[in-house]
Amino acid sequence: MEATVDTITAVRSSALRLESVSRRHGRRGRETTALDAVSCVVPAGSFTAVVGPSGSGKSTFLQCAAGLDRPSSGTVRIGDTDLGALSEAALTRLRRDRIGFVFQSHALNLVPSLSIEENVVLPLVLAGADPADERVLARGRDLLARVGLAGRGARGPATLSGGQQQRVAVARALVTEPEVIFADEPTASLDPESAALVLGLLRDAVRVDGRTVVMVTHDPVAASWADTVLTMDGGRLR
Ligand SMILES: Nc1ncnc2c1ncn2[C@@H]1O[C@H](COP(=O)(O)OP(=O)(O)OP(=O)(O)O)[C@@H](O)[C@H]1O
């Protein structure tokens, strides 16, 4: 009985849980195994870095964990939700409403034709919020202030430096108060000072707001900001 209770407790308090997740590419007999029976639990309210050499499976881990790719076998859960049980439409809604993303390239993170504040509130608007609603506008303003860019919201992303654009991407990742924020090499194109600002924002999202962050990085300095470091090697967790 005790084991059952423990299992239930672990499922409830985990923001992300992988059970024997494998991802294979190519045809049977000539397959590449990008992810090889990976199991892990990421507790809610933690900052986890995923590190490892090039080709070790870090991106595949993130893609499967965030519902951007479907594993060949195994189970991925965000909170209590089994992603494998969801239709494409439900998975899209889950990514929009319950997950935040910060990608590697600031050029890819933001929509150039939208203002900075429109970029921040975009996930809310995509979920049906009125972009002219004062509460939506106020939320955008608050988050921009939080990332040190108060008063800059009306301009376009191109008026910002790369580091500032990544801070806008963090603000956008926070806007829906997601259960997990996935960051894929969020500081790869930044100078050390800008990188530290972005990493500080991710750490504060965990420490101040109790959010859960999972960050893929090849940079040991970036990984040192995390509470837990998972090391990948040959598609497995070491
Ligand atoms: N779509 C695909 N088709 C075939 N092989 C793939 C595909 N995606 C990934 N792989 C292979 O799976 C392995 C893991 O790749 P992955 O991109 O997850 O590693 P990574 O650790 O993120 O690497 P990097 O640090 O260079 O981005 C590699 O051998 C890669 O070549």
Automatic annotation (TrEMBL):
In terms of Pfam families, this protein maps to: ABC_tran
Domain of life, per UniProt, equals Bacteria
MF terms from GO for this chain are:
ATP binding
List keywords of the entry alphabetically.
ATP-binding, Nucleotide-binding, Transport
Signal peptide: which range, if any?
Answer: none
Tell me where in this chain the ABC transporter domain is found. Answer: 16-238
Key word Zinc present in the record?
A: no
Q: Which residues form a coiled coil?
A: none
The cross-references to PANTHER family, in alphabetical order and at most eight, read: ABC TRANSPORTER RELATED, IMPORT ATP-BINDING PROTEIN
Protein's UniProt name? ABC transporter ATP-binding protein
Q: Which organism is it from?
A: Streptomyces gelaticus
